[in-house]
Protein backbone atom coordinates (compact mmCIF):
# COMPACT_ATOMS: atom_id res chain seq x y z
CA UNK A 1 0.00 0.00 0.00
CA UNK A 2 1.06 3.55 -0.60
CA UNK A 3 1.18 6.09 2.21
CA UNK A 4 1.80 9.82 2.04
CA UNK A 5 2.92 11.77 5.08
CA UNK A 6 2.78 15.51 5.61
CA UNK A 7 4.34 16.14 9.00
CA UNK A 8 3.50 19.85 9.26
CA UNK A 9 -0.21 20.35 10.01
CA UNK A 10 0.14 24.15 10.06
CA UNK A 11 2.70 26.64 8.83
CA UNK A 12 2.93 30.38 8.40
CA UNK A 13 5.15 32.66 6.35
CA UNK A 14 5.58 36.38 5.95
CA UNK A 15 4.46 37.87 2.68
CA UNK A 16 7.28 37.89 0.08
CA UNK A 17 9.26 35.27 2.00
CA UNK A 18 9.96 31.68 0.96
CA UNK A 19 8.42 28.63 2.59
CA UNK A 20 8.92 24.89 2.11
CA UNK A 21 6.25 22.29 2.77
CA UNK A 22 7.42 18.75 3.34
CA UNK A 23 6.01 15.49 2.04
CA UNK A 24 7.31 11.96 2.29
CA UNK A 25 5.80 8.81 0.87
CA UNK A 26 6.23 5.09 1.05
CA UNK A 27 5.93 2.83 -1.96
CA UNK A 28 7.47 -0.22 -3.56
CA UNK A 29 6.76 1.14 -7.03
CA UNK A 30 9.63 2.36 -9.17
CA UNK A 31 7.65 4.58 -11.49
CA UNK A 32 4.91 6.86 -10.25
CA UNK A 33 3.70 10.44 -10.21
CA UNK A 34 3.57 13.03 -7.48
CA UNK A 35 1.37 16.09 -7.20
CA UNK A 36 0.80 19.09 -4.99
CA UNK A 37 -2.73 20.42 -4.74
CA UNK A 38 -3.91 23.68 -3.19
CA UNK A 39 -7.30 24.19 -1.53
CA UNK A 40 -8.00 27.85 -0.68
CA UNK A 41 -10.55 28.52 2.07
CA UNK A 42 -14.04 27.57 0.86
CA UNK A 43 -12.78 27.15 -2.65
CA UNK A 44 -12.08 24.39 -5.10
CA UNK A 45 -8.99 22.21 -4.91
CA UNK A 46 -6.64 22.93 -7.79
CA UNK A 47 -3.43 21.42 -9.09
CA UNK A 48 -0.25 23.32 -8.26
CA UNK A 49 2.52 21.18 -9.69
CA UNK A 50 3.27 17.62 -10.80
CA UNK A 51 6.40 15.46 -11.03
CA UNK A 52 7.13 12.22 -12.85
CA UNK A 53 9.33 9.95 -10.76
CA UNK A 54 11.46 8.93 -13.72
CA UNK A 55 12.48 12.53 -14.36
CA UNK A 56 15.56 13.71 -12.52
CA UNK A 57 14.81 17.39 -13.02
CA UNK A 58 12.68 19.06 -10.39
CA UNK A 59 9.43 20.52 -11.68
CA UNK A 60 8.82 24.27 -11.48
CA UNK A 61 5.72 26.39 -12.08
CA UNK A 62 6.40 30.10 -11.67
CA UNK A 63 6.87 30.69 -7.92
CA UNK A 64 6.30 27.03 -7.08
CA UNK A 65 9.03 24.40 -7.30
CA UNK A 66 9.63 20.97 -5.87
CA UNK A 67 12.62 19.23 -4.38
CA UNK A 68 12.19 15.61 -5.40
CA UNK A 69 14.53 13.15 -3.71
CA UNK A 70 13.58 9.71 -5.02
CA UNK A 71 15.93 7.69 -2.86
CA UNK A 72 14.69 9.45 0.24
CA UNK A 73 11.06 9.30 -1.00
CA UNK A 74 10.71 12.98 -0.35
CA UNK A 75 8.74 15.55 -2.35
CA UNK A 76 8.79 19.00 -0.81
CA UNK A 77 7.11 22.11 -2.23
CA UNK A 78 8.87 25.47 -2.17
CA UNK A 79 6.84 28.64 -2.54
CA UNK A 80 8.93 31.71 -3.34
CA UNK A 81 7.81 35.31 -2.88
CA UNK A 82 4.76 34.19 -0.90
CA UNK A 83 1.54 36.07 -1.60
CA UNK A 84 -1.63 36.46 0.44
CA UNK A 85 -3.46 34.36 -2.14
CA UNK A 86 -1.19 31.43 -1.30
CA UNK A 87 -3.03 31.01 1.99
CA UNK A 88 -4.61 27.56 1.64
CA UNK A 89 -4.49 23.93 2.61
CA UNK A 90 -1.85 22.09 0.59
CA UNK A 91 -2.08 18.40 -0.14
CA UNK A 92 0.65 16.13 -1.43
CA UNK A 93 -0.56 13.21 -3.56
CA UNK A 94 0.92 10.01 -4.99
CA UNK A 95 -0.32 8.23 -8.11
CA UNK A 96 0.83 4.86 -9.41
CA UNK A 97 1.85 4.53 -13.05
CA UNK A 98 -0.98 2.11 -13.76
CA UNK A 99 -4.45 3.11 -12.77
CA UNK A 100 -5.69 6.49 -11.67
CA UNK A 101 -6.02 6.17 -7.95
CA UNK A 102 -4.50 8.94 -5.87
CA UNK A 103 -3.20 8.69 -2.32
CA UNK A 104 -3.31 11.96 -0.42
CA UNK A 105 -1.46 13.23 2.61
CA UNK A 106 -3.29 14.80 5.53
CA UNK A 107 -2.52 18.32 4.37
CA UNK A 108 -0.61 21.38 5.56
CA UNK A 109 -2.50 24.55 6.34
CA UNK A 110 -0.40 27.49 5.17
CA UNK A 111 -1.10 31.05 6.25
CA UNK A 112 0.65 33.97 4.57
CA UNK A 113 0.95 36.88 6.98
CA UNK A 114 0.86 40.42 5.60
CA UNK B 1 -11.28 24.06 -18.66
CA UNK B 2 -12.64 20.97 -16.94
CA UNK B 3 -15.72 21.64 -14.91
CA UNK B 4 -16.80 19.29 -12.16
CA UNK B 5 -20.11 20.28 -10.63
CA UNK B 6 -21.46 19.01 -7.36
CA UNK B 7 -25.18 19.53 -6.93
CA UNK B 8 -25.08 21.10 -3.46
CA UNK B 9 -22.52 23.14 -1.53
CA UNK B 10 -24.29 22.55 1.79
CA UNK B 11 -26.72 19.83 2.79
CA UNK B 12 -28.40 18.99 6.08
CA UNK B 13 -30.08 15.62 6.54
CA UNK B 14 -31.39 13.51 9.38
CA UNK B 15 -30.10 10.22 10.75
CA UNK B 16 -31.49 7.27 8.84
CA UNK B 17 -32.30 9.20 5.69
CA UNK B 18 -31.12 8.03 2.28
CA UNK B 19 -28.89 10.76 0.88
CA UNK B 20 -27.83 11.33 -2.72
CA UNK B 21 -24.82 13.44 -3.66
CA UNK B 22 -24.56 14.18 -7.36
CA UNK B 23 -21.50 14.98 -9.44
CA UNK B 24 -21.31 15.89 -13.12
CA UNK B 25 -18.24 16.53 -15.27
CA UNK B 26 -18.20 18.07 -18.72
CA UNK B 27 -14.94 16.72 -20.19
CA UNK B 28 -15.96 13.19 -21.14
CA UNK B 29 -13.60 11.79 -18.50
CA UNK B 30 -13.59 8.05 -17.91
CA UNK B 31 -12.50 8.21 -14.29
CA UNK B 32 -14.54 9.63 -11.46
CA UNK B 33 -13.91 9.58 -7.73
CA UNK B 34 -15.64 10.32 -4.43
CA UNK B 35 -13.64 11.38 -1.39
CA UNK B 36 -14.48 12.56 2.05
CA UNK B 37 -12.32 15.21 3.67
CA UNK B 38 -11.97 15.43 7.43
CA UNK B 39 -9.61 17.62 9.49
CA UNK B 40 -6.38 15.81 10.26
CA UNK B 41 -7.27 12.90 7.99
CA UNK B 42 -6.88 14.50 4.58
CA UNK B 43 -8.81 13.03 1.66
CA UNK B 44 -9.96 9.45 1.88
CA UNK B 45 -11.24 7.61 -1.17
CA UNK B 46 -14.73 6.18 -0.84
CA UNK B 47 -15.43 4.81 -4.32
CA UNK B 48 -14.20 5.33 -7.84
CA UNK B 49 -15.30 4.38 -11.32
CA UNK B 50 -13.34 3.74 -14.51
CA UNK B 51 -16.31 3.55 -16.83
CA UNK B 52 -20.07 3.58 -17.03
CA UNK B 53 -21.67 1.00 -14.73
CA UNK B 54 -18.27 0.15 -13.26
CA UNK B 55 -17.32 0.87 -9.67
CA UNK B 56 -14.48 0.04 -7.36
CA UNK B 57 -14.27 0.33 -3.59
CA UNK B 58 -11.81 2.77 -2.17
CA UNK B 59 -10.43 2.85 1.34
CA UNK B 60 -13.64 3.59 3.23
CA UNK B 61 -16.67 2.27 1.31
CA UNK B 62 -18.70 1.12 4.31
CA UNK B 63 -22.06 2.84 4.55
CA UNK B 64 -21.85 4.19 1.00
CA UNK B 65 -22.74 3.07 -2.49
CA UNK B 66 -22.36 4.69 -5.91
CA UNK B 67 -24.06 4.78 -9.26
CA UNK B 68 -22.61 5.56 -12.69
CA UNK B 69 -25.39 5.19 -15.25
CA UNK B 70 -23.97 7.85 -17.57
CA UNK B 71 -20.37 8.73 -18.25
CA UNK B 72 -20.67 12.30 -17.06
CA UNK B 73 -22.49 11.58 -13.79
CA UNK B 74 -21.29 9.82 -10.65
CA UNK B 75 -23.59 9.66 -7.67
CA UNK B 76 -22.69 8.88 -4.07
CA UNK B 77 -25.43 7.33 -1.94
CA UNK B 78 -25.57 7.18 1.82
CA UNK B 79 -27.96 4.28 2.33
CA UNK B 80 -28.92 5.22 5.90
CA UNK B 81 -27.17 8.37 6.99
CA UNK B 82 -25.42 8.41 10.36
CA UNK B 83 -23.86 11.27 12.30
CA UNK B 84 -20.33 9.96 11.65
CA UNK B 85 -20.91 10.64 7.98
CA UNK B 86 -20.98 14.37 8.62
CA UNK B 87 -18.11 15.58 6.47
CA UNK B 88 -16.97 17.44 3.37
CA UNK B 89 -17.45 15.30 0.26
CA UNK B 90 -15.35 15.95 -2.83
CA UNK B 91 -15.94 14.60 -6.31
CA UNK B 92 -13.12 14.43 -8.87
CA UNK B 93 -12.62 13.27 -12.43
CA UNK B 94 -9.66 12.48 -14.66
CA UNK B 95 -9.23 11.54 -18.28
CA UNK B 96 -6.90 9.60 -20.56
CA UNK B 97 -3.80 11.09 -22.14
CA UNK B 98 -0.04 11.06 -22.24
CA UNK B 99 1.66 11.25 -18.89
CA UNK B 100 0.07 11.70 -15.49
CA UNK B 101 -3.48 12.94 -15.59
CA UNK B 102 -4.38 15.11 -12.63
CA UNK B 103 -7.70 14.84 -10.94
CA UNK B 104 -10.05 17.79 -11.30
CA UNK B 105 -12.19 18.54 -8.29
CA UNK B 106 -15.63 19.96 -7.68
CA UNK B 107 -16.34 22.62 -5.06
CA UNK B 108 -17.33 20.04 -2.48
CA UNK B 109 -20.52 19.32 -0.55
CA UNK B 110 -20.50 20.00 3.16
CA UNK B 111 -22.93 17.43 4.55
CA UNK B 112 -24.30 17.56 8.07
CA UNK B 113 -26.23 14.64 9.50
CA UNK B 114 -28.37 15.56 12.50
Describe the structure.
The complex is a heterodimer of chains A (114) and B (114). By secondary structure, chain A is an all-beta fold. Helices cover 0% and strands 54% of the residues of chain A. Chain A has strands at 3-5, 10-14, 19-21, 24-26, 32-39, 46-52, 60-61, 64-69, 74-79, 88-96, 102-104, 108-113. In chain A, the strands form 3 sheets. In chain A, strands 2, 5, 6, 10, 11 and 12 form a 6-stranded mixed sheet that branches. Chain A has a 4-stranded antiparallel sheet with strand order 3-9-8-7, with no helix packed on it. Chain A has a two-stranded antiparallel ribbon with strand order 1-4. In chain A, a hairpin with a 4-residue loop joins strand 8 and strand 9 (74-79). The radius of gyration of chain A is 14 Å and the shape is globular. The termini of chain A are far apart. The mean pLDDT of chain A is 93. Chain B has 114 residues and is mainly beta. Chain B has strands at 4-6, 10-13, 19-25, 31-38, 42-49, 56-57, 64-70, 73-78, 87-94, 104-105, 109-113. The mean pLDDT of chain B is 93. The chains are: A mainly beta (114), B mainly beta (114).
How is the biggest beta sheet of chain A arranged? 6 strands, mixed
Give the overall shape of chain B, derived from the CA principal axes: globular
Quick one: which chains have the greatest interface? A-B, 21 and 24 residues
Total of helices of chain A = 0
Strand content of chain A: over 45%
What fraction, in percent, of the residue positions of chain A are helical? under 10%
Low-confidence stretches of chain B: none
| Count, helices of chain B | 0
